[in-house]
Write a structure and sequence with these properties.
It is built from 37 helices and 4 strands. It is mostly helical and 727 residues long. The strands form 2 sheets. It has a two-stranded antiparallel ribbon. Strand 1 and strand 2 form a beta hairpin. The chain is elongated.
Length: 727
């Protein structure tokens, strides 16, 4: 056996460890050093845990390597060193987290002047993050003893690895009392306020973006942990500060102080959106998002801080930061919408609980942008959210959803913004453009959903009575056009949108496409026939042929009736599909002559073993003769049966080549469905024994083994005589 032989080869790493003068670099050159470290190779761990080795590993991940080397080799050893230090081996964790001189070497990386090397910063963050998780008390105590620790981290916040370090301190400290103590320390160091100060037009874009992302992650993490520990946890001091009106007001003041830059406005708005964020709804629809969103109470202090700055946001929609022309696939866009206005639209969709938006006419301005920027689906989605949430929300949160109320925002939407009139005009303009050969406008899908939202909430919803009255008050022309639009155009569009994308017409492609197909025609033909079988059989077979619970009994008396229902299945075979079937069977006759022979036995007055007969050649069936399986749905006694509709084949009858339950001697055999061959029946080439000498075997299930004869004597297909006919 294999294990009798000593095929084990001694590791090169072991040979190196035998040397007295082995160096760390030599060990790191070995491919299996990390594997052996994680496997806790004792000799390797003893070597690595030496003070000199640990110091060398730390210097590798905190010191810039020489610039003369290739980039692929410069960071080879720092990368391996980082993997060794973070291999989660207790000996290394204890050594690194328990000795202050080693932590000092690691901490010295933060004291370097900016900018930090991003790759080395990631090594540092990964190493100290692992220590925060594994040696929490020692590392937190060490960091708290460093007076300027938080200032150094924020100085390098433009490196994303510093964000990860801060989030580790917030989310990876256990147990809960120690975590709460750490949060209080970070709050005393004014972490939230100092991050907000970085979102200012005077800061560079990278620092603003990373500071905003850190604030958003702190808000989400704090809320998640508060939800998980609702019973026995103190309030998160960082979250309390960020949700305070004072902090939000400071953020908005920074955003709109001095020159308004896009990076500052976008970064600050992202923080506001996170403060107003609905819990992630998963894969629900837009309407579900809106309903869930306004069942949740928005922090009033956040709204109070935002209200005085709504005019600034409205002005941003009119006069955004200057944008350069943008080249798109549809041409040059001279005045792009811009990321700034898109974020303003997102914020407005979250602030529809405030009626000041009606006073400022902000929703009307958003609708103008909706129709102006035809191809910006990001904007279209936000405007759709605005409309949907308006008509789904009652102005009185305590009113039950089945009672209609009055919402001033809905009145503003229909009367001041002329929502219905805009929908009708945009729809007609799109129809004219398409009739002239133009493209369908990019907002039409969202416009359809907005129209459907209005129609649905006209019948039911918290403001359905108000919507009905507003539609009734439309000018006579628009009222009639709206009713006609709902009954005709919108209904037809909804019908088309609900049609399956996969057509059941197998011949929908053009003949030119067929001729240009790169696949062999025989494969296409077989696939077509398979598709036909699936198409014709699936619906009828599943619906008509099945077992009900009451049809099973201990004695099985009713099971035959279930099988008899196969005869009731109806198939509609059209002429073009018949042509496909004929081609398929011709292909079968060409490739599988043995199967053709078994089919022929039921199609001749004097059947001869192994003689194939055209299954369609018989025009007048006689007793004992095979019948066209599609021409006679109700076979008579002694006549070939429908291969899909017959309950059981009769003696001397053509047999269903797919569903025959018990083939008889001398009768065609299912070439694919026979689980085990019997005496006198075709042999399964995969499960049967080898054929006897002098006996021919049909590899696809022909009748019983026959004496080997020549092709001319018994009519076997001669492949050289055939000509290609379907490809």
């Amino acid at each position: 056996m294999f294990w009798k032989f000593d095929l084990h080869t001694s590791s090169q790493l072991e040979a190196l460890l035998e040397k007295d003068d082995v160096t760390l670099t030599e060990l790191m050159d070995e491919e299996d050093v990390l594997q052996e470290c994680k496997a806790q190779n004792r000799r390797l761990l003893v070597f690595l845990s030496q003070d000199t080795c640990m110091q060398e590993l730390l210097h590798l991940i905190t010191t810039e390597p020489p610039a003369g080397l290739e980039e692929t080799k410069r960071f080879k050893y720092p990368n391996v060193a980082c993997e060794l230090l973070t291999s989660d081996v207790g000996v290394i964790n204890d050594k690194l987290g328990g000795e202050k001189p080693l932590l000092e070497i690691l901490y010295s990386f933060l004291e370097q002047p900016p900018p930090l090397n991003p790759l080395l910063a990631s090594f540092f963050s990964k190493t100290i993050g692992n220590l925060i998780t594994r040696k929490t008390e020692q590392v937190i105590s060490f960091l708290r003893g460093k007076e300027g620790f938080l200032g150094l981290v924020l100085k390098h916040i433009n490196t994303s690895a510093m964000m990860d370090l801060l989030l580790r301190l917030i989310s990876c400290v256990e147990p809960a009392p120690l975590r709460q103590d750490t949060l209080n320390w970070l709050n005393e160091e004014r972490l939230a306020q100092r991050l907000v100060e970085l979102i200012h037009p005077g800061s560079d874009e990278e620092r603003q973006s990373n500071a905003a992302q850190t604030l958003c992650d702190i808000i989400r993490l704090s809320r998640d942990q508060a939800n998980q520990q609702q019973d026995n946890c103190e309030a998160d001091p960082l979250l309390a500060v960020l949700e305070s009106q004072e902090c939000v007001s400071q953020l908005l003041s920074n955003m709109f102080a001095g020159e308004r830059t896009e990076s500052c406005i976008v970064s600050g708005t992202q923080v506001l959106l996170t403060l107003l964020e609905i819990r992630r709804p998963g894969a629900e629809s837009v309407l579900d998002v809106c309903v869930q969103g306004y069942e949740r109470c928005v922090n009033s202090s956040v709204l109070q801080a935002i209200r005085p700055h709504l005019t600034h946001y409205h002005q941003l929609l009119l006069e955004p930061p200057k944008q350069t022309p943008m080249l798109t696939s549809l041409g040059v866009l001279e005045v792009p919408l811009g990321n700034c206005r898109l974020h303003v639209a997102r914020l407005m969709a979250s602030l529809l609980v405030t009626l000041e938006l009606c006073t400022l006419d902000t929703v009307n301005l958003l609708l103008d942008l909706f129709f102006k920027y035809t191809w910006n689906n990001f904007l279209h989605f936000q405007v759709e959210l605005c409309v949907a949430s308006s008509v789904l929300k009652s102005s009185l949160p305590s009113v039950p959803p089945d009672i209609s109320t009055h919402n001033p925002l809905v009145t503003h939407l229909f009367q001041d913004c002329h929502l219905v009139e805009r929908i009708l005009e945009a729809w007609e303009e799109n129809n004219k453009m398409q009739a002239g050969g133009g493209m369908r406008r990019g907002y039409m899908g969202h416009l359809t959903r907005i129209a459907n939202t209005i129609v649905c909430n006209t019948e039911k919803g918290p403001v359905h009575t108000q919507i009905k009255s507003l539609i009734a008050e439309l000018p006579g022309e628009y009222k009639g056009r709206w009713e006609s639009f709902v009954d005709q155009a919108l209904t037809e569009t909804n019908r088309r949108n609900t049609v399956d994308l996969v057509s059941h017409n197998l011949r929908s492609s053009s003949e030119d496409d067929d001729r240009q197909s790169p696949f062999p025609k025989e494969l296409s033909l077989q696939q077509t026939f398979s598709d036909y079988q699936i198409q014709q059989m699936t619906a009828n077979f599943v619906d008509q042929f099945g077992f009900n619970d009451d049809e099973f009994s201990e004695h099985g008396d009713n099971i035959n009736a279930t099988f008899d229902r196969i005869a009731e299945i109806k198939f509609n075979v059209e002429s073009e599909d018949t042509v496909t079937l004929e081609c398929f069977f011709l292909l079968v006759l060409f490739v599988y002559p043995g199967w053709a022979a078994s089919f022929g036995e039921a199609n001749s007055n004097a059947p001869s073993p192994g003689l194939g007969v055209d299954p369609w050649a018989s025009q007048s069936p006689k007793p004992g003769v095979g019948v066209d399986p599609w021409a006679n749905p109700t076979p008579k006694t002694g006549v070939g049966v429908d291969p899909w509709g017959s309950p059981a084949p009769k003696s001397v009858s053509g047999v269903d080549p797919w569903t025959s339950p018990a083939p008889m001697h001398g009768v065609g055999v299912d070439p694919w469905g026979i689980p085990a061959s019997t005496s006198g029946v075709g042999v399964d080439p995969w499960t049967s024994h080898a054929p006897q000498p002098g006996m021919g075997v049909d590899a696809w299930g022909s009748p019983g083994p026959q004496p080997v004869t020549t092709e001319t004597e018994k009519g076997w297909a001669k492949f050289t005589d055939f000509q290609p006919f379907c490809w």
